[in-house]
Write a structure and sequence with these properties.
Layout (H helix, E strand, L loop, with lengths): L10 H8 L12 H19 L5 H8 L3 H4 L1 H24 L1 H20 L4 H28 L6 H29 L4 H4 L1 H15 L19 H22 L5 H19 L20 H31 L4 H8 L1 H42 L6 H25 L9 H32 L6 H25 L6 H4 L11
Helix pairs in contact: 2-7, 2-8, 2-10, 5-6, 5-7, 5-11, 5-17, 6-7, 6-10, 7-17, 8-14, 8-15, 8-16, 11-12, 11-17, 13-14, 13-15, 13-16, 13-17, 13-18, 15-16, 15-18, 17-18
C-alpha cells in the first residue's frame, strides 16, 4: 500500500527502509516517532491514576476528608473522555503537529498549576485544564503515528507506542505512594515538567511538518459541531457521575435520576439531530462504525478493556484490605503488571504474525479471564512466588490484548478518516478505562452492602465478575472475526532480495 505521509516517501521507500530492521521491530526511522508519541501517552495515563495514593495527604493539607478529594480523579477521567472529540477537528483545522506541541506545553503548564493549588476548588480547575490538554495529546499523537507510518509497519509501531498506555495506570499508584511517603504530594504533578520538556524537544526535532488539511483559503473551513459536542459531553459526563453515585452517593436522588435520564435523551438527540449548516465534521463520527474491523475492534474492545483494566485496581484493594499489606508493598507487586508489557514487547509482533487477530484476541481474552479468576482465589497464605508469577503473566496477557485491539481498530480505516477514527477510538479507550474502575468499585460496594460477599470477599467476587466481562469480549471476537482479518497489517513488509531487486 502506498505511503500516506504528506510529503513523505513512496510506499516502496517505506518497505525498503523497514527492511533494515528485524521483522519483529519497527524500522529505525519509526522508533523515534513512536517513542516521541509514547512520552505524551505516559504523562496522560500516569496522571489518570497517580493521584489515588495521594488522596489522604491532599485531604490533610486542605483540611477536608479524603473522599472529597476523589473528585480530582473523577473529573480528570471524565474531562478526558469529553474533550477527545474536539481533537479531531483541531488537528484537521490547525495541523496535527502544531496542536500536539501546544497540548504538550499546555499539559506542563497545567501540571505546574495543579502542584501550586491551595484548595480543592483550585485543584479541580487545574485538573480539568490538565485533562483538556491531555485529551489533545494522546489522540493527536496516535494520529501522527498512523499518518506517518507505512501500513505494513503499523502493528510494530503501535506496539512501541502502546507500552506506556499500559504501564502508566499501573505505575501511577506505586509512584504516587512513594512520592507521598518520601516527599510531598505536589511533586506528583511536577514530574510532568521534565517528562514534558523531553517530549517537547523530541517532538520539535522529529515530527514532520504537517499543514492543516484545508490549507486553501478559497475553501471554507468545516465548522466545529458544537451541538454534537455538547450532547456527547452530557452523555459521557452524566453516565460517569451516575456510576460514581452508586459508590459514593453525594448527590440528591432526584438529581441522580435526572442525570440517568439525560444519558439516553442526549444520545438520542445526537443520533437524530439535523445536519449542521454549513456542513462540517461531527463531534464523533459514528459512521466509522460501518467499517467492519473498526466496529468489531472497538465494540468488543470496550468490554475487554473494562474487565482487564479493573484488575490492577481490585488487586490493590485485595492486597491491602484482604492481605493486610501496606500500600507500598501492594504497589510493588501490582506494578509487575506493567512488567508484563515489557516482557511481551520483543515477542508481540511475532505472536500477532503467527496467531492473527482472531485467534490472538479471542484466545488471549480467555487467558486473561482465567488469570483474573486465579487472582481472585489467592489468599494471604498463597506463596509469594506464585502470586508474583500470576501477576506477571496477567500483565503479559493484558499487554497483548491491548496491543492487538489498538492495532486492529485502524486496520480498515482510510487515510482521509484517520483523524476521526483516532477521536472515536480514544473516547472508547478512555471511557472503558474509567468504567472499568467505576464498575469494579460499584460491585465491591454493592456486594458488601447487600451482604452477598462481605469484606474482602466482595473484592474477590468483583474480580470474578470482571473476568466474566473479559471472557464475553473474547467470545465476541471468536464469533465475529475471520481468520484473515487484519492480515495486511499483521504481517510486516519483508526486505526485497537482491535477485528480485
Amino acid at each position: 500500500m502506498a505511503d500516506t505521509r504528506p510529503g513523505g516517501s513512496s510506499g516502496e521507500d517505506g518497505v525498503a527502509n523497514s527492511a533494515a530492521s528485524p521483522p519483529d521491530s519497527p524500522p529505525a526511522s519509526i522508533v523515534p516517532l513512536a517513542l516521541c508519541v509514547s512520552i505524551a501517552f505516559l504523562m496522560e495515563t500516569l496522571d489518570s491514576t497517580i493521584l489515588i495514593a495521594a488522596l489522604p495527604a491532599i485531604g490533610d493539607d486542605f483540611g477536608i476528608p479524603p473522599l472529597r478529594v476523589n473528585v480530582a480523579v473523577t473529573v480528570y477521567l471524565v474531562t478526558l473522555a469529553v474533550m477527545i472529540p474536539a481533537s479531531s477537528w483541531l488537528a484537521d483545522r490547525f495541523g496535527a503537529r502544531r496542536v500536539f506541541l501546544l497540548a504538550v506545553l499546555g499539559f506542563m503548564v497545567t501540571s505546574l498549576g495543579a502542584a501550586l493549588s491551595q484548595s480543592l476548588a483550585q485543584l479541580v480547575v487545574m485538573r480539568i485544564a490538565q485533562a483538556t490538554a491531555g485529551a489533545m495529546m494522546t489522540p493527536i499523537g496516535r494520529l501522527l503515528l498512523i499518518r506517518h507510518t507505512p501500513r505494513a509497519q503499523l502493528a510494530s509501531a503501535i506496539i512501541w507506542m502502546s507500552t506506556p498506555v499500559q504501564i502508566g495506570p499501573v505505575l501511577g499508584p506505586l509512584l504516587g505512594g512513594w512520592i507521598v511517603t518520601y516527599a510531598t504530594w505536589p511533586l506528583i504533578f511536577l514530574v510532568n515538567l521534565p517528562l514534558g520538556l523531553i517530549g517537547l524537544v523530541f517532538a520539535m526535532r522529529i515530527l514532520p511538518a504537517d499543514a492543516p488539511a484545508q490549507s486553501d483559503r478559497a475553501t471554507p473551513r468545516a465548522p466545529f459541531d458544537w451541538r454534537g459536542f455538547g450532547l456527547i459531553a452530557i452523555v459521557l459526563a452524566a453516565a460517569q457521575i451516575v456510576i460514581d453515585q452508586l459508590v459514593h452517593p453525594l448527590l440528591p436522588v432526584p438529581l441522580t435520576l435526572a442525570l440517568l435520564l439525560a444519558v439516553p435523551v442526549a444520545m438520542g438527540l445526537y443520533l437524530h439531530r439535523p445536519a449542521p449548516r454549513p456542513p462540517g465534521k461531527p463531534a464523533l463520527d459514528l459512521s466509522l462504525m460501518r467499517l467492519r474491523l473498526f466496529r468489531l475492534a472497538l465494540g468488543w474492545g470496550v468490554p475487554a478493556r473494562i474487565g482487564i483494566n479493573a484488575v490492577p485496581f481490585l488487586l490493590q484493594l485485595q492486597l491491602q484490605l484482604g492481605f493486610g499489606w501496606s500500600a507500598a508493598r501492594a504497589g510493588t507487586v501490582v506494578v509487575l503488571i506493567a512488567g508484563g508489557a515489557i516482557v511481551l514487547k520483543p515477542f508481540a509482533a511475532m505472536i500477532l504474525r503467527r496467531a492473527g487477530f482472531r485467534r490472538g484476541l479471542a484466545g488471549n481474552a480467555g487467558i486473561a479471564a482465567a488469570l483474573t479468576v486465579a487472582l481472585a482465589l489467592v489468599g494471604p497464605d498463597t506463596p509469594l512466588p506464585v502470586l508474583v508469577a500470576l501477576v506477571l503473566v496477567f500483565g503479559i496477557s493484558r499487554s497483548l490484548q491491548f496491543n492487538l485491539i489498538n492495532t486492529l481498530v485502524f486496520a480498515d480505516v482510510p487515510a482521509d478518516r484517520q483523524s476521526s477514527s483516532t477521536a472515536l477510538a480514544g473516547v472508547g479507550q478512555q471511557l472503558s478505562m474509567a468504567l472499568g474502575i467505576s464498575i469494579a468499585a460499584v460491585l465491591v460496594a454493592q456486594l458488601g452492602a447487600l451482604g452477598i460477599a462481605p469484606g474482602a470477599d466482595a473484592i474477590s467476587a468483583a474480580m470474578v465478575g470482571m473476568a466474566a466481562i473479559t471472557a464475553l469480549a473474547g467470545l465476541g471476537y471468536a464469533l465475529t472475526l475471520r481468520g484473515e482479518d487484519g492480515a495486511a497489517i499483521a504481517t510486516p513488509a519483508r526486505r526485497p532480495t537482491k535477485r528480485s531487486a
